[in-house]
């Protein structure tokens, strides 16, 4: 039998799907036990259709979604347009028309996932999205299948290739943020508006999805505090190196006794931590669990072929389940009621970079402020003063989010101190 | 419904299975959709049974395999005794009695896997063994499911925790092989007879299994050339560091135009290669493929809970498939006729450590020998001579196994040269 699919969009990733289907036809057909055919491809308008045909792409391009939805031969709709709309409308209509869905759309799933999953479940249809988190890394299905017997306690992830490329250049080559961004844009890694990548929004979308698979809890995007890399200075990078750390933008989801906490923030990682050597545009997900202990899944977070590989694995799985008559199982069946951790329960070491007047007693005053919140110092570094001001770097012992908030408020009230940056520090 | 399992053996790993079943009962039952119960546990004799009962282990211990095989309520037999016999006989008999099998027995699967898989297939029974390769790392199921659309071209693996612990100490602390071995034995990482670990035999067993999952080809254990770490000297370690490499014992399986080649050997890895920072008892499998490109799966290669996590994931999968009525599919369905690569087709850079008389013309003679086999030098290092002999270190450009064999034979004929060591070098 031939299972027919409809592709929505024919951008970089989408064109990788027919490439893999052709290149690995024999292996894929053995795994799927049926052959897979791209029956129709939805493109924006006639101009795009003409352009693609002229470029030698030999597909049945259509410009109206109805031509795919009304085609009873098409069993699977593969959405690779990205962004919320019209993807959301098209997927909703495709589910209503009885089509199984494969998508790589993390924005959509992070924000409207519950709704779409509920519809798919109601209709007994598959909704798979391995490629939505960390592109080529098969982390979602691994959490479902291989960690089924395990209990995840924490996930730390380098989840955004663009910001990781920029930070790698800032660390290895001493580049400024501005130079790193400009280069990332020139290389096509960053868009002209880089906000989603550099402010941790893209990584926060992925953290929402990872929370569901690893902890069975559906956090909202708004529950994921996110902080980006745009205010990291060469001084921060240099101090991190001096103290034995590497700065990475890390998605951190952990379960405490009161619930789960998810955030994305620049984090000092000890140099010997497996995530510390994840460089360039690569991604990695580091999992702490009571069974396996520590494991890490490393690979490209984006790109045509890696993403298409994850998408095609989802397609194969659907075709196989159609054959086995086990279709309709949710991609992730692990689900518990959402409980968010109390801020007093979420603990970490922290780095503070503070500018103070170069005069007697400033260290004493700073110590008094931290001490009043019962925060103790692990490392202190005073950098060469310029006669007027000095830069103080403090790494604290473990403290809670509540303590962090309180001490930050107190420091803001002191006219002598200006907090330049506060970053999380992962203990050894 | 309750699915009952029979455990064969109650060593470290086996006792981790009931721990996980209890600790994660709720999540496991959701994933399996039935509850799982350890009905009987086979132990060696009455003395062991009494000892375990006295230690507070509250199981139905039996000393005769027939009590498990004849028990119609037991659906799954979990073999965790290790070694070939009596494991092979017990698994064979269990399959004949209609039981599904989960095992972590790499020795058995590498040597007698084909036979056992054929029997399981004939009987329509499951034979799963995720834990047999790299303990807690879910590499086998990931290759089956997530790389279904991909074509693997090379696998490089740090597959033996004991030897990796030893090499890490030799590299980081400058320990000798002897000191590293003694410490590994004291810590319980190495057995009193460490042959399987340090000579690459254990890693070669795992390479046999990985070849089936990644390349669909069943190589025999005898096809996997293996070389261990016992002849690595502190001088080799120091030179590696000087040249920017780390020495690891690496399982290397690759597909060339003529077929596949699998071997286990000490390998110089560039310091920035993801495998280079896999330290201590940790394992990792680095996969090169046409779709994903480069990905790596990192975690503990052994240990009670990691291994039990993989075993329990296999059990859950069987229970779920019993429920879904899709039981009996082979763990790995990817299969192609075996084709072994021609030695002239398997290429790498190589490191040679050679002792030569400290006299004129030795470098010329050496260059002549390598040149006669069309092997060119990438790096040459002459170490301080002691007046009588000098140590020459050569890193070659890429050359084939055939060239390696020829040049090694020629060097052996030269009375002036003694080749101390030859190791593979992974190019950047």
UniProtKB/TrEMBL annotation, chains A, B:
It comes from the Bacteria. One of its GO terms (molecular function) is NADP binding. InterPro entries: ACT-like_dom_sf, ACT_dom, Asp/hSer_DH_NAD-bd, HDH, HDH_cat, HDH_CS, NAD(P)-bd_dom_sf. The keyword Oxidoreductase applies. NADPH binds at residue 106. It catalyses: L-homoserine + NADP(+) = L-aspartate 4-semialdehyde + NADPH + H(+). Pathway: Amino-acid biosynthesis; L-methionine biosynthesis via de novo pathway; L-homoserine from L-aspartate: step 3/3; Amino-acid biosynthesis; L-threonine biosynthesis; L-threonine from L-aspartate: step 3/5. GO terms for biological process: methionine biosynthetic process; threonine biosynthetic process. Residues 351-425 form the ACT domain. PANTHER family: HOMOSERINE DEHYDROGENASE (PTHR43331). This is Homoserine dehydrogenase. It comes from Streptococcus iners subsp. hyiners.
């Amino acid at each position: 039998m031939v299972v027919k699919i409809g592709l929505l969009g024919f951008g970089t990733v989408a064109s990788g799907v027919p490439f893999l289907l052709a290149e690995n036809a024999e292996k894929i057909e053995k795994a799927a036990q049926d052959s897979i055919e791209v029956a129709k491809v939805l493109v924006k308008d006639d101009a795009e259709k003409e352009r693609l045909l002229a470029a030698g792409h030999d597909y049945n391009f259509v410009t109206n979604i109805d031509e795919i939805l009304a085609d009873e031969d098409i069993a699977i709709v593969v959405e690779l347009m990205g962004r919320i709309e019209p993807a959301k409308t098209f997927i909703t209509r495709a589910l209503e028309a009885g089509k199984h869905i494969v998508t790589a759309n993390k924005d959509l799933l992070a924000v409207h996932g519950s709704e779409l999953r509920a519809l798919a479940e109601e209709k007994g249809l598959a909704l798979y999205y391995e490629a939505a988190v960390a592109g080529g890394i098969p982390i979602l299905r691994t959490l479902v299948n291989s960690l089924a017997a395990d209990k995840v306690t924490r996930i730390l992830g380098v989840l955004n290739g663009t910001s990781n490329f920029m930070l790698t250049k800032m660390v290895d080559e001493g580049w400024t943020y501005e130079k790193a961004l400009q280069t990332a844009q020139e290389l096509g890694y960053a868009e002209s508006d880089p906000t989603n990548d550099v402010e941790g929004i893209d990584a926060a979308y992925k953290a929402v999805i990872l929370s569901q698979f690893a902890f069975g809890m559906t956090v909202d995007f708004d529950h994921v505090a996110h902080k980006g890399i745009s205010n990291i200075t060469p001084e921060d990078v240099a101090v991190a190196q001096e103290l034995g750390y590497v700065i990475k933008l890390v998605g951190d989801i952990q379960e405490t006794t009161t619930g789960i906490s998810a955030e994305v923030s620049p984090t000092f990682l000890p140099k010997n931590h497996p995530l510390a050597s994840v460089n360039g545009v690569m991604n990695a997900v580091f999992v702490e669990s009571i069974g396996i202990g520590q494991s890490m899944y490393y690979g490209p977070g984006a790109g045509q072929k890696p993403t298409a590989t994850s998408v095609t694995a989802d397609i194969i799985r659907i075709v196989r389940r159609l054959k086995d008559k086990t279709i309709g199982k949710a991609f992730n069946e692990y689900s518990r009621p959402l409980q968010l951790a109390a801020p007093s329960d979420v603990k970490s070491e922290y780095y503070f970079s503070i500018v103070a007047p170069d005069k007697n007693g400033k260290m004493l005053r700073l110590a008094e402020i931290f001490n009043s919140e019962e925060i103790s110092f692990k490392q202190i570094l005073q950098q060469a003063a310029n006669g007027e001001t000095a830069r103080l770097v403090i790494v604290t012992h473990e403290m809670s989010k509540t303590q962090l908030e309180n001490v930050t408020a107190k420091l803001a009230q002191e006219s002598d101190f200006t907090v330049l940056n506060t970053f999380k520090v992962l203990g050894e």
